Amino acid sequence: MKFSEIPVQIVEIGRKSGATDVAAKMVESRRVMVRFSNNEVTVSKIFREATIDVFVMVEKHRAATTISTLSMKNIKKVIENLVKAAKAAPPADIYAPLPQGPFTYSPALLKAPKMPLDPDTLTGYVEGAVKGALERGAERTAGTLNALRAKITLATSGDVYISQEAAGLELSIRAFVSEFATGHFLSVAGRLEDFNPEEAGRMAGEIAKAADNPKPGEPGKYMALLGPMVFADLVNQVGSLSSAFLIDAGQSFLVDKIGADVASKKFTLIDDPTLAGSIGVRAFDDEGVPTRRKAVIENGVLKTYLHNSMTAKKFGVETTGNAGIIIPHPWNLIVEPGDKSLDDLISEIDDGIYVTNDWYLRYQNYRTGDFSTLPRDGMFRIKRGEIISSIRELRISDNMLRILQNIVDLSRFRTWVKWWEVEVPTLAPYALISELNFTKPTI
After folding, report:
1. How far, rounded to the nearest angstrom, does the alpha carbon of residue 107 sit from its chain's CA centroid?
2. pLDDT of 228-252, one tens digit each?
3. Pick from 25, 18, 99, 100: which is nearest to 59 by CA?
4. The pTM is what?
């Protein structure tokens, strides 16, 4: 038996064990991680992994697991036990069988561009990023570069058996001038021609240099300019909390808002896994349904939640091709651009704050959208259209819907963002917010 046929075998074992529906998704990956600090590569590791996510249903009873030991003896035991666990699980409200194929998929989405994985080439990319940062005033740098090639194979009891390649390069670089003067930027690409580590280094270096000698910021409400890394974090929240599973659970600020104005008319958010060559490309979801481009929010109006077959039946709509094993989710988030340059946006601020990065976004209330997050790296005070100083020691404490409705303008420039604060690849611009609440962080 070929290794790639294991998902088919899992479906057969599951059906023979009494499951009405079975889906098995195997991900085989080869990843190279290069770490660097103090301007030098410190670690280079190669990871080869293979895991299988399995979902079974016995009518309304469901269960899921992940298998990492891929011997057929272990797999058979795990699947038989999983079906038993499903039979013993409390029933769901409804039963929606897995979508019935076969389906037709875009050939352009099934193949991935070639991606270099040899450590020497990747080290050269790191050296280019470090050089870019030092040329713009940084004293030292640190970060990671991850290069990935993967194969995703899916089999379901709905007559689906399909494979897709995936590939990507993700560089994250922080530049330092002092302990409190830092900058962070990224280069994230699904094609080699879109990867620019030198520019990422230059951007991080420029932010760090400008952030030297920061002063404590004053809490208050300000017009705010959010860099792509901050705005991508907020956009990830919007995309992820548009999942119909979370809507149904009441854990989202978008509950009961289909057709409502939830954001400024300047804001359009699209989930597009069909964008060939992007890092979040997917030809099919975890139920085998072909993916498609869709507007989640269009000109400020919430158009759709993200569905799998189960949530779609519960809401009386069609699946949007966003199935995860249990929870539907976005694949590839894209914010439509504005028509302003960065300088144009800064010039519109009479009295405000420019935030380049953030981390540790936490909700006080998912249902209302109240949250806080900590600005990280360079943060700047703006007066009369000019940056006048570097500041620190502030927290953003506001409401997600209020921020979306306070979007004044967006930049033409956009960049892909993906790192440990932003899990879903997001093409994000700079965003000008008419009013944002800043507080002092607790110690």
Report:
1. 24
2. 999 999 999 999 999 999 999 999 9
3. 18
4. 0.96
